[in-house]
Amino acid sequence: MGTAIAGFRSPTLEVDRLLDDLRTRIIVCCGSGGVGKTTTAAALGLRAAQRGRHVVVLTVDPARRLAQSMGLTSLDNTPRPVPIPGADASAPGTLHAMMLDMKRTFDEIVESHADPDRAAQILANPFYQSLSSSFAGTQEYMAMEKLGQLRRADSWDLIVLDTPPSRSALDFLDAPQRLSRFLDGRLIRLLAAPGRAGGRAYMRVVNAGFGVFTGVLTKVLGAQVLRDVQTFVSALDTMFGGFRERAEETYRLLQTPGTAFLVVATPEADALREASYFVERLSEDRMPLAGLVLNRVHSTPAAHLSAARSLAAAEVLVPATAPDGSRSCRGDGARGDGGHQIAATALRLHAERLQLVAAERRLAQRFMAAHPGVPIVEIPAQPEDVHDLPGLSAIGESLASR
Amino acid sequence: MSARDTDWEGVRLHVVTGKGGTGKTTVAAALALALAGRGRKVLLMEVEGRQGIAQLFDCPPLPYDERRVAVAPGTTHHAGGDVYALAADPESALIEYLEMFYNLRHAARALTRFGIVDFATTIAPGLRDVLLTGKAAEATRRKVNGEFTYDAVVMDAPPTGRISRFLNVSSEVSGLARVGPIRSHADTVQRVIRSPLTAVHFVTVLEEMPVQETLDGIAELRGLPSGGLQLGGIMVNMVRPVPLPGDDLGKAAGGSLDAGELSLALKAAGIDDEAVPGGRSALAVSLATELAGYAREALAADGQRRRLAGAARPVYELPRIPDGIDLAALYRLAESLREQGAA
Ligand SMILES: Nc1ncnc2c1ncn2[C@@H]1O[C@H](COP(=O)(O)OP(=O)(O)OP(=O)(O)O)[C@@H](O)[C@H]1O
Ligand SMILES: Nc1ncnc2c1ncn2[C@@H]1O[C@H](COP(=O)(O)OP(=O)(O)OP(=O)(O)O)[C@@H](O)[C@H]1O
Ligand SMILES: [Mg+2]
Ligand SMILES: [Mg+2]
Fold this sequence. Notes:
The complex is a heterodimer. By secondary structure, chain A is of the alpha/beta class. In chain A, 54% of the residues lie in helices and 11% in strands. Chain A has an eight-stranded mixed sheet with strand order 3-4-2-5-1-6-7-8, with helices on both faces. The termini of chain A are close together. The relative contact order of chain A is 0.17. Mean pLDDT of chain A is 84; it is low at 1-6, 195-199 and 324-335. Chain B is α/β, with parallel strands linked by helices. In chain B, strand 8 (198-204), helix 10 and strand 9 form a beta-alpha-beta unit. In chain B, helix 5 (116-123) packs across helix 6, helix 7 packs parallel to helix 10 (208-222) and helix 12 packs across helix 13. At the A-B interface, helix 6, helix 10, helix 11, helix 14 and helix 15 of A face helix 4, helix 5, helix 9, helix 10 and helix 12 of B. The structure holds adenosine-5'-triphosphate (2 copies) and magnesium ion (2 copies).
């Protein structure tokens, strides 16, 4: 099978070496939406377990059938054992998988940081409820939080972390800070305890504006709402320190050498642009990048038959335009026999495939030229979705072979 | 030609949702163009602050203002129509709302400077949603001199995962505001959204996850308390042509195509190749393998089609445009929607 990017000098990402290295404790799969983060995370976890490691995979929003194939049928936020096909008897690894439940995780933080009364008060507050289930970034923050928890539990020697679906891969790194910045914000502190924030002169100015603010809010939302906001904010106030500390701790964990970031991208312009941004950001933040996983790469077993020759041959067998002007390349038997029809179709599709392969290669090479040192590994595009353990196993194989 | 019936006669607000990246913005724009035929005026509105419409129509970022972005082609019998676009954001919508109902423009601007709107819409996403759906409802109902400003409004809406929350404004806000002006505003908006004036369309591609999200989204909207939300159609986007007729497709996918016959055909076309055991050419074997991949993809897509059929909604198929989306491609997609009766 041809490698779409053969010939270029980017180093190969040696996946088995990464998985076998016992110093690798955390693998984070990042990338823009829909590129295959969850699939890659699951395949890596499975392969690592097949090679003898004790692995937990934390998935976010897996496809239903994939979740089922890993024995995850409900969201309960606890790791479940997954039977490993093709496990090496001499190196018995284990695999656990779990799905992130962001609301549950948030609730647990509240419960562990506040006394029971206060926790109950927060959990019941309508603002808490909407923040914990729909703040943009909550899912990312909770993924990090869960990662921290799994790491502290120390029951596994490898954690594979899938990241939430989002347009931009950077969201995973930005969101937690966005949440703590929000919780730390001047306004929220003002609401929590109007008397404490800032110096006196500053307060006079702020309070003037603040009066307008509360006035309008009361007018538009009603006094009840304002009270709810204040209850919520002052209840959270006690936990700010804890929140920030934990976010920072987990962020630091991501900078340690035991962590390996894998950026997943498909060979498409948008996905690779996002991957580029992410690679740059990782180096700015001194986070260890292991490499790029180029997913859903197309190839052809007949690379030596050029598109031009292929199309010309198809034209000989079945002209694309029948005399009456209608297209007849659908094998409707208008011309030639069935064999010719099928051959013509195969040849036209082959020409299309060659164009696709060439386009993907151009995009991949542009990335490589911009990031020459970044190791790369490819996963071929499968004709069907990947949703069972044998399918994941096959992806693992292709990750390891070169 | 007389005006023909379309599937969504009477619908004035078209909400377009779908899994991220399946083509919501593209399809919403195509639908707006399709609806704007026959001299109509349509507003295309986005609510996610991404300037997707401006990118699509290749114009500078849209302000909070309704601008004409495209002219729908006319026919020999009808003048073309106009597509206007609006990038709605909650902050501007709030200012507009406060001004419209309370004459509070100055106060509203001060609040914005404080970052208070940002804050309020962060801790209360329901507030954000009601402002945006409120803007859509307002544009839908707006009249000047007794005439509707727009014949239709098309909203490029949030993705499937958030759509039912987004549209269920009244109950979302009720937890936050039990009484008061926001509450009654939400109720007014709800009345428009829950009426036959509004339909919610789902965009998907023929892959497992987007199809699952579509089915889940439809079930979720059907299950909303007190019902009344009109489901629209399913727009299947980026459809590839089926490479072979049914029988051959199955054979090709299963790898049981007659490679011998393929070898002969290739020979007839003058592209011979070395023979491999069994008398077939190596090239025929390779091409059969490649064809098998295409065939399996086509069969998998068919499987997803059957799942979608289970939702019992009108389905419209839009082709994948190989060279990407530009204005010409949008017109093509719009035409296809019209031919299929979506507009
Ligand atoms: N190599 C591949 N060949 C074919 N299909 C693939 C491949 N990799 C992933 N897929 C399919 O693509 C879809 C998206 O993959 P996946 O869910 O892993 O992406 P993701 O990056 O986690 O998406 P999201 O951003 O929505 O979380 C799935 O249906 C999956 O089965
Ligand atoms: N029918 C089509 N043929 C070819 N390409 C298409 C088609 N429809 C959409 N695309 C392309 O697919 C990509 C995603 O489309 P679009 O931005 O409309 O999706 P979206 O659902 O709005 O995405 P997002 O969730 O990011 O808002 C774009 O690059 C677009 O040009
Ligand atoms: Mg995922
Ligand atoms: Mg969009």
